[in-house]
Amino acid sequence: MPPAVKRPYDNSRRQAQVQATRLRIIEAAKVLFIANGYPATTLEAVAEAADTSLPTLYRLFSSKRALLKAVLDVSFGGDDQPVAFADRPEVQAARAEPDPQALIRAFARIGRDFMERSSAILRVLATAAQVDPDTAQLLEEISWQRHTGQSRIVAALSARHALDPDLQSSEAADIAYAVLSSEVHRILTVERGWTAEQYEQWLVRLLGALLRKEPVTTSTERNEQPGLPQPADLGGHCVQAGASAGCGDGPT
């Protein structure tokens, strides 16, 4: 009798269960961190809110700091997939935009979505960093990552020869970092009550005004701009300042 052939062990179902538990813990932790603050939130409270055991939580997250880092990562990317933010499709598509203004609009939309997911938990991180050295170190790491990530808009504009020539690349990166900060987002959307759409359009206007090289407008383009009177529309009439300059039938 031939020996029985062993089937390969399929642990995909088990992995899916672990992943679902992990995400449930992250979501519960985010809610509690935002509601109660990082220092006041215990891992016991997170485990209870996530309907899981404390040993399971510790098995998936080695420490409270590790759990906070996971909450930040999921908030930044929008999911728990192990894909770097720079490699996500929307970021790749924005960086590939050939038109500078379309590029700015794409990055503004990314900034809006990012802040809608992350602004509140970034505030938790900044507040906790004032009293917790480990969290302060994490804030420093996250701030460096944000600066690096948000400087990509500068690199993309520079590659298209659309960056303001009066700006150093480092200065332009600092401008993008400040404009796209969670502090500014909170001021506008929480304190002043702006909608997400208003915030996004403000990003488009401000990033364009602060970073872009002023587009060159040809005389033909100026003559074709709607709303501007063309020479033929003036009907031979001159403004008062032009009369003394030889326009029309000025005094001889």
N- to C-terminal separation?
123 Å
What fraction, in percent, of the residue positions are helical?
A: 55-70%
What is the N-to-C succession of helices and strands?
HHHHHHHHHHHHH
Q: Taking Cα atoms only, what radius of gyration do you get, to the nearest Å?
A: 27 Å
At the first level of CATH, what is the class of the largest domain? Mainly Alpha
Question: Mean pLDDT, nearest integer?
Answer: 86
Descriptive notes:
With 252 residues, this protein is mostly helical. It has two domains: 60 residues, Homeodomain-like (Arc Repressor Mutant, subunit A), CATH 1.10.10.60; 132 residues, Tetracycline Repressor, domain 2. The chain contains 13 helices and no strands. Helix 5 crosses helix 6. The longest helix is centred in the middle third of the chain and has 29 residues. The C terminus is likely disordered.
Features of the shown structure:
mainly alpha; Tetracycline Repressor, domain 2; 2 domains; disordered C terminus; single chain; 252 residues; 64% helix; globular; 0% strand; Arc Repressor Mutant, subunit A; 13 helices
Layout of SSEs?
Layout: H1 12-36, H2 43-49, H3 54-60, H4 64-77, H5 89-95, H6 100-128, H7 133-150, H8 152-159, H9 169-179, H10 182-191, H11 196-211, H12 219-224, H13 240-243
Give a brief description:
It contains 13 helices and no strands. It is an all-alpha fold and 252 residues long. It folds into two domains: 60 residues, Arc Repressor Mutant, subunit A; 132 residues, Orthogonal Bundle (Tetracycline Repressor, domain 2), CATH 1.10.357.10.
